[in-house]
Amino acid sequence: MIKIAAVFGSPRRKGNTSTLLNHAIAGASDAGAQITKIVLRDLKMSPCLEIYGCKKAGRCVIKDDYGDIEELFQRIDGLMLASPIFFYTVSAHTKILMDRCNSLWVKKYWIDKRPFGRKNYPRKGLFISVGSTNGKRLFDGALLSVKYFMDALDMELWKPLLFRGIETEGQIADAPGSLEAAYDAGKALVQTLADGYRPDGDQPLPDDLQ
């Protein structure tokens, strides 16, 4: 079974990105995937303190809710990450998670000494985001951050699903085709992962990390 982590990065529980991600989850579930939900606003997670404890074993030494996520991220086939845009990047909740995953970057490049460079990763990620303006470069910063964050997870940014001009809570429902696009993206992600799927024998993932 395809295993996907769905990360809710909005500070609003029922915000526009959360609505989109829920539709993507529905599409992925209907396609047969097992989904683990991670609601970042509900977790107790410190920012990275850059103490480099991860240099010893490739695991973060800060004891908080990130430990469960770090372990989970090594067992999933795919990721769905949703965050609104704040000053041309992801939310603070999302950025804290990204920075804590520096432990996985350290393991990959410093401990395991994997070579840098473009990889054809079988694991894929979907990034969902909305921004309140219509600026041409509105998502540029976030996309770069997400791309290299996913690289640390041995994962390719498979598809960004981006919506401009969305601000007030619930407004995404009025954007033509937006919810259907999120559902279809979730379903397509599972199909893409299934095309290269190899059973790994792992135990089932938890239903959520709320």
List keywords for this structure.
210 residues, alpha/beta, Rossmann fold, 7 helices
Walk me through this protein's architecture.
By secondary structure, the chain is α/β, with parallel strands linked by helices. It has a single domain (3-195), classed as Rossmann fold. Helices cover 37% and strands 17% of the residues. It is built from seven helices and five strands, in the order βαβααβααβαβα. The chain has helices spanning 16-30, 54-57, 66-73, 92-100, 102-111, 140-152, 178-195, and strands at residues 3-8, 34-39, 78-84, 123-130, 155-163. The protein has a five-stranded parallel sheet with strand order 2-1-3-4-5, sandwiched between helices. Strand 4 (123-130), helix 6 (140-152) and strand 5 (155-163) form a beta-alpha-beta unit. The longest helix is centred in the last third of the chain and has 18 residues, at 178-195.
